């Protein structure tokens, strides 16, 4: 019998509690030990809730109880999660977390502390919700150099973009609808502006490269400038627009970014729609692997958290191998990265061609403007030329 | 330094040799130990090949060398692979294999023998080539009851069906083309008739259920009866035809099958085309997870084999948890399983409706016959009615 404590009885925390109760026997069979939730920590009370009997308000009770082998941190945010997790690891407990902010900011340090105690710091649910992606990178794609990771890592923005794509709706009304349905927060900035996705791609990039990728150094652009007219052009090109987190080996180094991109129908992430997440990992031997599933939601995320708990029980006093050092990975300057751009402008074709040279025009029947695709050029060069020409907007083309 | 031996220097074996050499340093970092191929076993000679220095023709040299900790079996087939693998495990070595025949037939027994020596019998590459699917089932989907596994598990048949779909070609000429390109064997029966796929779904079903599913008891139907006219109907329905291996909890028990099925555009496997494989796993908590990648090919398959070797090194004297007992799982009779059928017949609508009741007609403009979709009925009931009516063909509808 292994005793665990859950920190935070919100959406994910209550899901973890429910799964451990509902699937008790099969989890015991998989873990090799029965798992019992000895404590749930929350500031609130939950009268009548099944967690009531194990609810505590003081973290020290958990920290000082040597029976608690595994701490499940599902509070989110950095404060007090970071201090709580560090204290648990220092007390010789393993920690499983769904907290992408914590992992993106302090992952390498917490892995090191866990290792020093022969314990584990596991965070499968911090990226891609229920989708196995951390464990495949750590435990499966171990014979390959990982050349690229490209993911639809945020369900809210994917829901909005899918709606805009399928229904021709504009951004503002789609966002409002998503908020009404609970798919977007009242304060949607973290999702819409890519701040959620950038932490997730930083985590994946750090694991793929074995060094720390600082999410604050990753070029980040959200979807709030994407319009229904952009989708009209996209349709003409047989493409869709997705918010992609990317980390890729390019000529001069590793380039990482979060930005909306135009994706062709042949791309394996083209059909990843709605709140679903999808992640492509390219290895130098295995080629392209694609992982698709629920990127958020109570039970999918909690399922991934509990799979970490099972893993922690299986490796109770053995630190599993996670390659992620505190040493920083210097990213290649994003402005050097080359790609095709789709551009909308009010300029005339003579100016377009004199500045951008060989371009491919896209006629979506929008009057008063011209759409075109550039040759493959660097971000830097593109900005120069775009400034010179004057443009309405531009979207990067994937691939 | 961990010493390994490769049994069989065919496509996969030479791929394993190449990856261990090419990605040596990163594999050493991931495994925590350098890995050296001490022997390659093959009956043939390979003058000038890099394997030449370590090539042996006598298995006993490997078996009796205590330095060899891990045996990599990539010969395929049951003889002599089964005896070789059993002997290696009995000698206290771990075994990694890509051999689906061996795993489907003797998996549970070989896992038991490995466990009894605190060693591992690993077989990630036996299903889905380079796609991580065995390890996710064993190590990730551990908090969920697995309700369904549905997979495109054979690249050859998927290549043929994709060609027929996209190009309107007929079966015979597409098969010939696939053979000319090396995507289909000269003797294509194992692929075409589903004998390859049925072993793979049996392995996945056994792991999902923890008991042995006998592949010989799984209903198996290949694609050799699928015609270009079937694809014309499929197009009219906005569907495609895929050969699916399935294992699903239905009302009265677990139903397993391999058969061509009509898939709608919304199905996550609809866009898995060409030689690519795709597998959907449905958990009772996590929902649908989809894994897509190269299902065959030298380097993708070898990559999965080497990932097993890394895993075996990480767990050198610890048996990792694999839930697959020798006890047999009694499958529910396939004839009781219910679904919609798409039917082609020369009978008239009066007879169709008097026998099948409420049907939905599909007009693909094919003269001299009628296409229709039945209500959801059991295989058994369908056969009775189809016999009574007289039909040209029928394809099961997925979902």
From TrEMBL, chains A, B:
Domain Aspartate/homoserine dehydrogenase NAD-binding residue range list: 8-124
Family label: Belongs to the homoserine dehydrogenase family.
Listed InterPro entries: Asp/hSer_DH_NAD-bd, HDH, HDH_cat, HDH_CS, NAD(P)-bd_dom_sf
Descriptive protein name: Homoserine dehydrogenase
Pfam short name (any one): Homoserine_dh
A GO molecular-function annotation: homoserine dehydrogenase activity
Residue ranges occupied by any Homoserine dehydrogenase catalytic domain in the UniProt entry: 132-310
EC number: 1.1.1.3
Assigned keywords, A-Z: Amino-acid biosynthesis, Methionine biosynthesis, NADP, Oxidoreductase, Threonine biosynthesis
Keyword Oxidoreductase carried by entry: yes
Reactions it catalyzes: L-homoserine + NADP(+) = L-aspartate 4-semialdehyde + NADPH + H(+)
EC class of the enzyme, as a word: oxidoreductase
Lineage: Bacteria, Bacillati, Bacillota, Clostridia, Eubacteriales
Pathway(s) served: Amino-acid biosynthesis; L-threonine biosynthesis; L-threonine from L-aspartate: step 3/5; Amino-acid biosynthesis; L-methionine biosynthesis via de novo pathway; L-homoserine from L-aspartate: step 3/3
